[in-house]
Amino acid sequence: MGKELLFAVFRNKIPERTPWVPFAGVHAGKLKGYLTQEILTDGDKLLESLLEVNRVYSPDGQPVMFDLQLEAEILGCDLIWDKKAPPSVVSHPLAKTRNIELSIPGPDDGRLPIILDVMRNLKERVGNTTALFGLICGPLTLASHLRGTEFFLDLMKDQSFVANLVEFCREVNKNIATYYIEAGMDVIAVVDPVVSLISPKHFEQFLSEAYTEIFAHIRKTDRFSSFFVCGDATKNIELMCRTKPDSIFVDENIDMVQAKMITDAYQITIGGNLPLTTVMLLGTQMDNMKSAVDLMDKMGRQRYVLAPGCDMPYDVPEENVIGIIQAVRDFEHTKAMLQNYTRENFDIPVDLPDYGNLFRPLVEIFTLDSATCPACGYMKKAVDEAQEHFGKKIDTVEYKLTLPENIARAKKMNIQHVPVILINGDIKYSSYLPSRNDLFKEIEGHI
Predict the structure, then answer these.
(1) Strands (DSSP E) along 277-357, which ranges?
(2) Using an 8 Å Cβ cutoff, are 79 and 4 in contact?
(3) 201-253 pLDDT, tens per residue?
(4) Cys-Cys with 139: which of 6, 169, 214, 380 at CB 3.0–4.6 Å?
(5) In CATH, what number is assigned to the domain containing residue 310?
(6) Which DSSP string do the residues of 364-420 spell out, in sequence order?
(7) Which pTM was predicted?
(8) What is the distance between the alpha carbons of residues 368 and 364, in angstroms, rounded to a whole number?
C-alpha cells in the first residue's frame, strides 16, 4: 500500500520505489470545478475534491487542507478570498497591542468542525491505502499573522513579547495537532514559510524549544511529523533537524543535495523541491516527467519523498501531474525515455529598466506569488509600506513567477531565490525580511 511506502521512508528504511505526495490544496477544487472558497468552507465539496485527487493522482500521502490562515481566522484575523488561491490575512488583532488576550481554539471554533468532519470521512474512505496529512500553521507564521509586520521589528525591539507570542502559538499548534490526530491523521505537518526569513540566531532563540516540544507532543501519539518551510531556508535546515521532526519538506529555493547531506546526518527524511511555477504550472508534461526523474535520480530512495515544493497552484494542468505519476511508477523506463530530453527554457525577450538613468528609485520584488505564499506576502507588505511612506518619491513593482515573462526577467537578472527585494536593479534582501527602518534607510540612500 502507498502509505506503507511513506511510513517506511520515515522509519529510515529503503522502499521499493520513491513515495509520492502531491500537495493538492486549492488545486483539488480545480479537479471538480470548484473555486477556493467553495472547497475551504464547504465540507461536501472539499471531500469530493479530495477523493478526486486520490483517484486521479494515486498519492501515497495527501493533505486534507492547505490553508495557513485557518487558525488566524479563528483568532480574529480578517481574510480576503481569492478565486484560485488560499485566502490572505488582511487584519491583525495584535497590530496595536502587546496584550495576548486570546483563547486557544477549540474543536468547535471557526471552520474546524468542517475540517475535522472531512478528515474523519476521508480516513474512512481512503485511509487504508493513503497516508493523510493534517497541516497546521507554524508558530512563527501564525505569530506574524496575529501581529502583522510589526512582529519582525519586535524580533529586535521586544524579545520578551515575541517569546510570549510564540509560546501562545506553540500551544495553539499542540491543540490543533491533537484534534487532527483524533480525527485520524497519520502525519501532522507544521507549515511555517516565514522561517526562511529569519536568522539562525532568531530561530534558536525563539523557535528551537517550541518546535522540539511540538514534535515531541506529536511523537507521543505514535504519529509522524513534518516540518514544512518555503523559500531559501538553507541557513536554518540544521536547526530544524535538531527539533527532531520525522521529515522536512522544502521548495525549489533549496539545493536538495546539500540539504539532504544535513538531514541524512540526523536520519531525517527530506521531501519536496518539484518547482511549482516553472515546471508544474507552466511546463509541459515532458518537463514534469524530466524534473521528477532528475530529482529521484539524484536523491535516491532512502529518506526522500517526491512532492511539490508547496501548495500546488490552482491551474496546474492535470496532465502534468499525471506525467509525474508515470515517472514515479515506472522510473527506469521514464529515465531512459527522457535521457536526451532538454526542458524548454523561458527565453522570452524582456526589457530591463535603464537603472542608471531612473527618475526616482525603483524597488522591485520578485515572489512566487504574494497572494498565496505568506513569506512572499510579508515581503510584499514591507514594500507596500515603503511605497505608502515615500509616495511619489519612489516606484515599486512586483513580479510574480506565475507568469512566463517574469520567469524570463528573473533569469535575465540572475535571481536565484525568492522572495527578493531589489533597489535600482541591485539585490538587497534575498529570503530575508528587512525591518521597516532598515528598508526605509536603504531607500533613502537612493533618493
Answers:
(1) 304-308
(2) no
(3) 999 999 999 999 999 999 999 999 999 998 899 999 999 999 999 999 999 99
(4) 169
(5) 3.20.20.210
(6) EEEES-TTT-HHHHHHHHHHHHHHHHHGGG-EEEEEETTSHHHHHHHHHTT--SSSE
(7) 0.90
(8) 14
Query: Closest Cα to residue 16, out of 442, 380, 332, 405?
Result: 332
Q: Percent helix, strand and coil across the chain, each rounded to 5?
A: 50, 15, 35
Does the pLDDT of residue 434 top 90, yes or no?
no
Domain CATH code at residue 364:
3.40.30.10
Cβ proximity of 186 and 223 under 8 Å = yes
Amino acid at 446: H
List, for residues 112-139, the tens digit of each pLDDT value: 999 999 999 999 999 999 999 999 999 9
Q: Which residues contact 374 (CB under 8 A, 6 or more apart)?
A: 68, 141, 144, 145, 193, 194, 230
- Residue 17 one-letter amino acid: R
Q: Are 367 and 310 in contact (CB under 8 A)?
A: no
In a domain, 362, yes or no: yes
What cell was used for 439?
Answer: 528598508
Residue 105 · residue 75 · CB < 8 Å: yes
